[in-house]
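Lecture notes, continued. The same structure-token format from the folding unit now serves as the input rather than the output. Read the line below as a description of shape only.
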């Protein structure tokens, strides 16, 4: 999964820039400022990262069903987890074998 980090602890600020962030074509380790917030491509995270983070009490997990992304909020950062083509293929293969 590709991880894009938006550094803020303010949900309203995050919501204001979410659509713009999703349209950006950041390369791995790119960082830029958008409406006063730092946005960076944190690269790939393993599939178990979401499972591991979701059980922590300080982590809020949100899902955007329309975009198929998961959003983790903890501390002063929102992490947008975007499935890659590889993730989608692996999930389709797992579903076919079950």
């Amino acid at each position: 999964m590709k991880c894009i980090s938006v550094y803020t602890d303010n949900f309203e600020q995050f919501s204001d820039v979410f659509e713009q962030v999703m349209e950006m074509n950041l390369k791995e380790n790119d960082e830029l400022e958008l409406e006063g917030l730092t946005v960076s491509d944190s690269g790939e995270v393993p599939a178990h990262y979401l499972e591991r983070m979701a059980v922590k009490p300080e982590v809020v997990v949100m899902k955007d069903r329309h975009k198929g992304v998961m959003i983790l909020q903890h501390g002063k950062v929102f992490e947008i987890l975007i499935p890659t083509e590889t993730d989608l293929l692996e999930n389709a293969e797992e579903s076919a074998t079950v």
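Point for the exam: The chain has a mean pLDDT of 89.
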